[in-house]
Amino acid sequence: SGLCSQGMAQLAVFSGGGVLLIDRSAGPTPLIPDRNLQNVFYAIHSFVEKKGAYLLDTHTASCKIVWRKCHENVLLIYVSRAPSILPEDVVTDFLDRVFGIMVLVLGLDAMASPKDSLQDAFTKNAVLNAIDSMIGECDVLAPILGSTDIVCCPDSLRLQEQVAHFASRYSAQCAWLHINHRVCAATEGFWNMPAHDSVLLCSYVRSLSPASARDVPVYLPTLCPRQPIRLLTILLTERLELCMLFDASSEATLDHLLAEDVEEAWGYSLPLLHQPSSIYLRRVPDFVTIDTGLSAFLLVDHSTHRHLCSLTPWRPSRRRASATWPSGARVCCSHVSSL
Q: Does position 216 have pLDDT exceeding 90, yes or no?
């Protein structure tokens, strides 16, 4: 289940000056409703740090507290209560990803003064939604494995060629087809990206509010934490999104893509685009025969940092009676989400 399932764990993010920036938990009530107690946890860490030591974690009879100093001015505190107490390395990786998503949205330079950077409501909501999405990720192994979760389509090579052709046409850094945190086709630029960045990008796209198209600035925590680039997403079918990364100075615009080229390039291949949605639960094509006694499987390719996982490998794919082009893909300005 998710890291903060059933309200049994809570995350707090403090600035270097002791200002509570983010306070998130799952469940109807927070694990630590008293803000003063959270301030005490921060004060304990500050006291120990001034003594020349570094506080990592501590235990009580029923709780575990983990501190993570990710930057000079950012301190993350994770408090969990049995039975939701997880291994330390899992929690540490989660806190690293929380800081990573903050860098992805705000940039590393903004971490010098995170309180000021989170004053903008749109930016803060983007960070909060991304963190909430990571907290509730109960069906995703990508963060744990540090690799990209994929869907194996029957015509994956054709999808790959289509994505690569469209990306090269506009000189995109990379592009991928995204379906609920998983990738069904991508360019070499995406697969060559550090796994930390690609996993965070998929988490971020999943957390964004539904929109037929978006043009948002992002930072890649490993590759370019200080230089923003552009993330363009276009909804191709009900669940499938085309995601592309461009230089900040790129002349590619959503208006142009939506008005002319998207439907021209993708409209004739609608049956191909519906393949990822039709096999999404099974995640492997129907022609792959799997014993009904197999409850689940996980294949990990460590060399390319990708994995394939299915919890219902014997389940037949969901067929669609017809394929129609989404009406939202034909419009631009009024339906474009931008930060």
A: yes
